[in-house]
Amino acid sequence: MSDLQHERISVLAQDLRLTALPDLYGPIAQNAATKTDVSYADFLEDILKAERDARRVRTREILTRTAGFPAIKTLEAYDFAFATGAPRHQIQELASLGFVERAENVVLLGPSGTGKTHLAIAYGLIAAQKGWKVRFTTVAMEAAYRQGRMKEVLHRAVAAPKLLIIDEIGYLPFGREQANLFFQVVARRYEKGSLILTSNLAFGSWDEAFAGDAVLTAAMLDRVLHHATVVQIAGESYRLKDKRRAGILARPQPATVPKTKEAKGEKV
Most buried residue among 12, 76, 164, 245 by CB atoms closer than 10 A? Predict the structure, then answer.
């Protein structure tokens, strides 16, 4: 094949938005030429399959890059040997992402450093690899709030993602307007799109993070938990394990966890 013909094929592929085809058709054509039982239709089918597969790879890469993950974390890298207080079977079962297909929610509860964010990112990464739009964000939106862009940020987070991950509920308290906007996010996604929420607070303390408004918090939790799986993770901080081993930090005393429905990690 001449360079001129290759250039013409490349231009045609670009016009048709078959961006991978110029790099793919050569090897496929050479392979087909060595076989006597390959028809033109077979060659065309192989070309189109290769273009489709390359497009899927690009889509997954773009979705992963634009999801806003602070780091790449996988379920395989989660240290169950250290996190003995993590319900392994429940966590692995959720990796099928059936809850996303059903527009249900997952709430990850536990002390700081027990891997809640790691798991949330891991589920988000699996969703992106499935070709689903994912958005990872934290409740630390004070900068956007001060700049008057809070509504814009929350609208963008609500509108498109099939899976919305909101990390660190309870680390920074919301003001009243922020709490109202957050409630709107939950209300607009109710039974329409999945949420993964992480928090170090028990549900009974969530009003502390939402401007002390118990009524708003109750209404929000009603929507979040109506179709939700609660994962209760106990244990020590993974980030501080080396310091504790070295004796720099004291080992925390185990707390008594009330046997509530949420604490058992049941679906509610």
Answer: 164
